[in-house]
Inverse folding.
């Protein structure tokens, strides 16, 4: 049986850790040894780790300082890579060295990365590799350039970026890449999403796996609530809370890892507050429309449940999800930084009462539910078997 290192570097949503937990569980059940190396050491509980070692993954310094936010508008994955340190030779060298030291200590047979481009770079040509993630975080490695995904000039010169990366690969004796997209290259690549959310659909050769856990069966009922999923560290004075209150609708909020002061403030607005995660069957049963920051797992679950959606976005992936929801007539979106409470409340109330929107959302759920998409966790187990 194989020893598999499961690594996660980028992205802050709970979904990354959840995917690793499911992969680790399935691999252990198949008889493999598992070690985790993750961006957030608190991302997996002791029970979720299942007795497997959990290491702190090497972190690019750009995740720790505000410099990650410096520069022009982020319009594509190349800009994201640049902001996260691929434009700095010292960071690239340090990250490769950090992963090499960790790989030497852990001694895995196979490396599996979840949104882990530095790990893929460090493992390139050294170990069998697998990569899994959302459609957004799994750009096809065959593209000659990483494309712009929204209007605007890219901030990064990909030719210069490629030259910098190849210099560091040469330093450690690894063959050069032909394009920046090959940062994400692996022997086995798995992208899980719905086609509606795939920004690289025109370039993707592999079939998308299902973004939902096996057996997902939540379906919208006759609920009348607005369910709101808020990410960690939402500000106490965010315009979102005032906008929700201005809608005059029955609001139920799950504020992830909320500070007690925020919970108290939300209760003061008259919202029902759920401190712990809620099963999707309950959300679908009680809700007429859902509001979120546009995390991939939440968006896909709401699509499959047949619920209209509103996305308040604050980064490129969430912008793309909001645009996709609007493009397919399944809801609306707004930039969190530009959210006007009164207008947001009025627009949310209008969407809530839009019967045609409700019908479109329910029809889309039937459509996506009929698609033949594989279980990505089963693909991971099969991939490990193939590479062993």
């Amino acid at each position: 049986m194989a020893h598999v290192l499961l690594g996660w570097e980028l992205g802050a949503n709970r979904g990354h850790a959840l995917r690793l937990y499911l992969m680790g569980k399935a691999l252990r059940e198949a008889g493999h040894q598992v070690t985790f190396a993750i961006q957030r050491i608190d991302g997996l509980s002791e029970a979720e780790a299942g007795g497997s070692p959990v290491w702190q993954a090497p972190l690019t310094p750009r995740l720790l300082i505000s410099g990650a936010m410096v520069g022009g508008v982020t319009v594509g994955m190349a800009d994201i890579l640049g902001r996260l340190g691929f434009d700095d030779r010292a960071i690239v060298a340090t990250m490769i060295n950090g992963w090499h030291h960790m790989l030497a200590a852990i001694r895995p047979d196979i490396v599996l990365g979840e949104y882990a481009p530095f790990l893929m770079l460090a493992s390139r040509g050294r170990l069998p590799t697998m990569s899994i993630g959302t459609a957004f975080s799994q750009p096809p490695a065959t593209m000659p350039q990483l494309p712009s995904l929204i209007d605007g000039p890219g901030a990064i010169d990909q030719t210069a970026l490629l030259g910098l990366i190849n210099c560091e690969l040469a330093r450690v004796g690894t063959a050069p890449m032909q394009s920046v997209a090959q940062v994400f290259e692996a022997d086995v690549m798995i992208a899980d999403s719905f086609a509606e959310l795939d920004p690289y659909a025109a370039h993707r050769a592999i079939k998308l796996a299902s973004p939902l856990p096996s057996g997902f069966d939540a379906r919208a009922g006759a609920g009348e609530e607005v369910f709101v999923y808020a990410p960690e560290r939402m500000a106490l004075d965010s315009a979102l809370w005032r906008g929700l209150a201005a809608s005059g609708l029955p609001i139920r909020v799950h504020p992830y890892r909320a500070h007690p002061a925020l919970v108290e403030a939300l209760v003061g607005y008259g919202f029902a507050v759920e401190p712990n995660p809620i099963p999707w069957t309950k959300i679908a049963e009680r809700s007429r429309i859902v509001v979120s920051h546009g995390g991939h797992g939440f968006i896909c679950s709401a699509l499959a449940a047949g619920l209209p959606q509103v996305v308040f976005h604050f980064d490129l992936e969430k912008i793309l999800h909001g645009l996709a929801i609007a493009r397919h007539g399944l809801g609306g979106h707004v930039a969190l930084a530009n959210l006007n409470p009164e207008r947001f409340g009025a627009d949310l109330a209008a969407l809530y009462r839009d019967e045609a929107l409700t019908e479109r959302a329910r029809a889309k759920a039937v459509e996506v539910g009929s698609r033949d998409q594989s279980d990505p966790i089963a693909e991971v187990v099969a991939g490990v078997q193939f590479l062993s």
About this structure: The two ends are 8 Å apart (CA to CA).
